Automatic annotation (TrEMBL):
This is Divergent PAP2 family protein. The keyword Transmembrane helix applies. It comes from Butyrivibrio hungatei DSM 14810. The chain crosses the membrane at residues 12-34, 54-85, 132-150. Pfam families: DUF212 (PF02681). Keywords: Membrane, Transmembrane, Transmembrane helix. The lineage of its organism: Bacteria, Bacillati, Bacillota, Clostridia, Lachnospirales.
Length: 151
């Protein structure tokens, strides 16, 4: 039972969790407002505004900074991790999402031409983020991290 209580009393870990959770809820609400329909996949899915990846790692960085300071190895590790995650969200994963759109459109085109090709399940198109989505996720993570550590 100490393991479970240790996890829930770890404010740095809880900051990261709450950064992710708040971003996913906001992402779902924004999706409903923009698209006028509820998609339950948005609660757990990738992509969209704000970036939950950025919110998670920036809540981690912020809470680590506030707990251990800028000179700590914990802050260094969390900071490098955050840079990698946010760069990946805007780079490789964003390009993968763009490619998924093109491939899905090609599959639809082949279906319209009545070509006999195996059509698997459509590829996920919401996998990456725009720089603005990453920025807002990062800001959200900083705020959440600061709030959780201050409680």
């Amino acid at each position: 039972m100490d393991f479970i209580s240790d996890i829930f009393s770890n404010r740095i870990l809880m900051s990261a969790f709450w950064g992710w959770f708040v971003a996913q809820v906001l992402k779902t609400i924004i999706y409903v407002i923009v698209n006028k329909n509820f998609n339950p996949e948005r609660l757990m899915g990738d992509g969209g505004m704000p970036s939950s990846h950025s919110a998670t790692v920036m809540a981690l960085v912020t809470s680590t900074f506030l707990t251990y300071g800028a000179g700590s190895f914990e802050f260094a590790i969390s900071g490098v991790l955050a840079l990698i995650v946010m760069h990946d969200a805007m780079g490789v994963r964003r390009q993968a999402g763009k490619q998924a759109v093109v491939i899905n459109n090609m599959m639809d085109w082949f279906k319209e031409l009545d070509q006999d090709i195996p059509v698997e399940q459509k590829l996920k198109e919401f996998v990456g983020h725009t720089p603005l989505q990453v920025l807002f996720g990062a800001i959200l993570g900083i705020v959440v991290g600061a709030i959780v550590i201050s409680l």
